[in-house]
């Protein structure tokens, strides 16, 4: 059928209900044991799989344990430690700069506000949201990664194209108490079923309310391209 519900609010609630049932235990897939490790892991995860990040941080977190140790590490040494991560040279610079600011401006503690986090090198709103939610139990918004961006557009929940605009558009539609889990549910669904290149629409629990379903429609609303 592939027909969305009459309003975006109704569509969002139905999507949440079905995905909560489909993925009851979904949560963040990055490994960390404290706020600093969480920050580093999320910084590394930009345009890189969580699986790859977890492999790298299993050694990284044994080598560097404090903000001072990250900040004082030579650029070449830090880049080498994360060399299997995408854009490792830039990420090494960001990590060293961010941790230096944490030491100098925040007494060695990872900040707990959006403005202070996004002032750190290499930390945008998406990264800050993850750190706030999972490090400080503060939910200020919706984390919009590539899965959330793609699936929210496919489901007709937003027509915005860029992450910050998508977040702004979704926040009045998705109930605030579901902001954190909305991200995890869509990530789980994006990995299992609603993949970027070849979604398995015939096995999707949302197919009958999805205006991008390959079974009923000719266009992928995520990209605007024909199937």
UniProtKB/TrEMBL annotation:
HhH-GPD domain segment(s): 44-192
Taxonomic classification: Archaea, Methanobacteriati, Methanobacteriota, Stenosarchaea group, Halobacteria
HAMAP family named among the record's database cross-references: Nth
Keywords: 4Fe-4S, DNA damage, DNA repair, DNA-binding, Endonuclease, Glycosidase, Hydrolase, Iron, Iron-sulfur, Lyase, Metal-binding, Nuclease
Binding site for [4Fe-4S] cluster: 194, 201, 204, 210
GO biological process: base-excision repair, AP site formation
Role played: DNA repair enzyme that has both DNA N-glycosylase activity and AP-lyase activity. The DNA N-glycosylase activity releases various damaged pyrimidines from DNA by cleaving the N-glycosidic bond, leaving an AP (apurinic/apyrimidinic) site. The AP-lyase activity cleaves the phosphodiester bond 3' to the AP site by a beta-elimination, leaving a 3'-terminal unsaturated sugar and a product with a terminal 5'-phosphate.
Reaction catalyzed: 2'-deoxyribonucleotide-(2'-deoxyribose 5'-phosphate)-2'-deoxyribonucleotide-DNA = a 3'-end 2'-deoxyribonucleotide-(2,3-dehydro-2,3-deoxyribose 5'-phosphate)-DNA + a 5'-end 5'-phospho-2'-deoxyribonucleoside-DNA + H(+); Hydrolyzes mismatched double-stranded DNA and polynucleotides, releasing free thymine
Protein's UniProt name: Endonuclease III
NCBIfam families to which the protein is assigned, alphabetical: nth
Matches recorded under InterPro entries: DNA_glycosylase, Endonuclease3_FeS-loop_motif, HhH-GPD_domain, HhH_base_excis_C, HhH_motif, Nth
């Amino acid at each position: 059928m592939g027909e969305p519900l009459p309003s975006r609010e109704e569509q969002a609630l139905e999507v949440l209900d079905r995905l909560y049932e489909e993925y009851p235990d979904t949560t963040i897939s990055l490994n960390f044991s404290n706020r600093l490790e969480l920050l580093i892991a999320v910084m590394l995860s930009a345009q890189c799989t969580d699986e790859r990040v977890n492999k790298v941080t299993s050694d990284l977190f044994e080598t560097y344990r404090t903000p001072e140790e990250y900040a004082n590490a030579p650029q070449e040494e830090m880049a080498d430690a994360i060399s299997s991560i995408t854009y490792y040279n830039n990420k090494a610079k960001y990590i060293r700069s961010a941790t230096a600011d944490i030491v100098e401006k925040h007494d060695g503690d990872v900040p707990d506000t959006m403005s202070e986090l996004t002032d750190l090198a290499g930390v945008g709103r998406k990264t800050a949201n993850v750190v706030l939610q999972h490090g400080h139990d503060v939910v200020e918004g919706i984390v919009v990664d590539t899965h959330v961006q793609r699936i929210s557009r496919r489901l007709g929940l937003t027509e915005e194209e860029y992450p910050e605009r998508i977040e702004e558009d979704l926040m009045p539609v998705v109930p605030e108490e579901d902001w954190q889990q909305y991200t995890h549910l869509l990530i789980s669904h994006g990995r299992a079923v609603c993949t970027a290149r070849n979604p398995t629409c015939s096995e999707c629990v949302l197919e009958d309310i999805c205006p991008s379903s390959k079974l009923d429609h000719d266009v992928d609303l995520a990209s605007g391209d024909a199937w």
